[in-house]
Amino acid sequence: MGHGGSDADRFVVRPRGPLSGAVRAGGAKNSALKLMAACLLAEGRHVLAGVPRIADVEIMADVLRATGAAVSRLDPAPGAGEPGDLVVDVPATLHPEAPYELVEKMRASIVVLGPLLARCGRARVSMPGGDDFGHRPIDMHLSGLGAMGVTFDTVHGYVEGTVEGGGPLVGAHVVLEYPSHTVTDNLLMAAARSKGTTVIDNAAREPEVRDLADALRSMGATIRGAGTSTIEVEGAGELRPMRHRVVADRVVAATFLAAVGIAGGEVVVTDARVEHMDMLLRKLRDMGLEVEHGPGGLRAASTGRVRSVDVSTLPYPGVATDYKPFLVAMLTVADGVGIVTENLFSGRFRYVDELRRMGADIRTEGHHAVVRGVERLSGAPVRATDLRAGAALVLAGLAADGETVVADAHHVDRGYDDFAGKLRSLGADVRRA
Ligand code: EPU
Predict the structure, then answer these.
(1) Which residue ranges make up each domain of the chain?
(2) 139 lines ligand 1 (CB under 6 A)
(3) Fold agreement between 10-26+248-432 and 29-245
(4) What is the mean pLDDT of the segment spanning 341-354?
């Protein structure tokens, strides 16, 4: 899992000209984690294909194990170019608890709350703590599940939920104050195994929500409208185990496209789902990147310096907040001035200080950043402040003179399987040291 504190906890990056080659994005972290949680909804053996080999998946595996499930990885199929299937065996009786030690490592652990309540009639989940980017409360998870018949208490740092009358959950009409991704996931999973019909209004529309809905349908639930703002779920009392392939990771795919924007060259992301990246691809084209979808995958090419654009993050289908650090990294070396506005997480500009250490010209004011492109960055020791910021700093290093050392690389391992190796396969000079 993590490389916390060890020598390998750094990326060492040196510029080495344009990139070229083909690379796979792999399965989406933010789908795989929810699919793993969804396994808890049905007793039996679940098989998930395309689950990325990343640290967050290891943590979620431990969360499932804490409830009594067994999680193992099969050997990869020869020549498949992807990890082996993940097998989740879910017993008849679960221990409905997500302990502090795991939730503290990964706040996405909260997505077991819905499945555990639906399955066991009660659940105990450690309260996720503060986070690196802004205030991220869980009130909407609790009020949504509350509408389905759960009463919550907070005791000794744990949220304890009990379904009225010992269960089952009952369908409800829930209007989300904000189209939260994980809240939509949690409610979708709970609703799949509840009694009656649930309507989630102002639901998140992310492709990963749709992927989860597809999986839940294969388990026996009836779901309409996933991918739109109104999702209707007819719960099935009992569900059956799933066999499902995780949708491709659009954020990892975007990382490699941005790498081309920064280092130049031509790269094909073989498994990218273009239809999930529409708004981002428009932005990249506006910046002068050549992006086209062909039989081999999504191809991005760039010969000169990219142009600055303004960017504003929004819930899907807007430009995702997760893409923003890569776009900011591109803007640091782009021609012109770009204004970046963060509308989701208030504190998500911490990595800007690190980019400044590399010679970037960025001013931040509240949730805005003004990025004035410079000709060239200058390699420096910097620190990954979170997963996407860490990846963005590595990208910046591709266009920085001399050596860039990105410390706290373990943040990047949370969501990227062998990031350095994949960039090397495209001709970059990136190693772990
Ligand atoms: N919010 C509340 N109350 C809640 C839940 C959320 O106020 O009960 C607020 C948050 O404070 C935030 C906003 O809603 O301002 C958005 O949060 P959302 O719930 O949509 O984000 P999330 O579900 O916690 C997921 C991804 C993030 C990604 C965001 C936005 C997972 C595990 N995480 O987070 O991915 O940035 O959606 O698309 O799916 C990452 O991959 O590194 C990552 C952080």
Answers:
(1) 10-26+248-432, 29-245
(2) yes
(3) yes
(4) 86
132 is catalytic: no
Report the nearest atom of ligand 1 relative to the CA of 142.
Answer: 8
User: What is residue 135's predicted lDDT score, i.e. its pLDDT?
Assistant: 58
Contact 231, 188 (CB under 8 A): yes
pLDDT for position 79: 87
Q: CB of 329 within 8 A of CB of 396? A: yes
What's the CA-to-centroid distance between 428 and ligand 1, angstroms? 32
Rounded CA gap, 24 and 425, in Å? Answer: 11
**Which ligand 1 atom sits nearest the alpha carbon of residue 321?**
36
Q: Which CATH class is domain 10-26+248-432?
A: alpha beta
Does the C-beta of 348 come closer than 6 Å to ligand 1? no
pLDDT digits (tens, 9 = 90+) for 54-85: 999 999 999 999 999 999 999 999 988 899 99
Residue located nearest, by CA, to atom 44 of ligand 1:
322
CATH of domain 29-245: 3.65.10.10
Q: pLDDT tens digit string along 132-160? A: 555 568 999 999 999 999 999 999 999 99
Q: Which is the catalytic residue, given 131, 139, 153, 278?
A: 131
Q: Are 332 and 373 in contact (CB under 8 A)?
A: yes
Lookup: tokens for 45: 């053996």
**Tens digit of each residue's pLDDT (9 = 90 or more) over 298-337:** 999 998 999 999 999 999 999 999 999 999 999 999 999 9
The ligand 1 atom nearest the CA atom of 108? 32
Q: What is the dihedral of CA 15, 355, 181, 298, to 10 degrees?
A: -20
Whether 138 lines ligand 1, by a CB cut-off of 6 Å, is yes
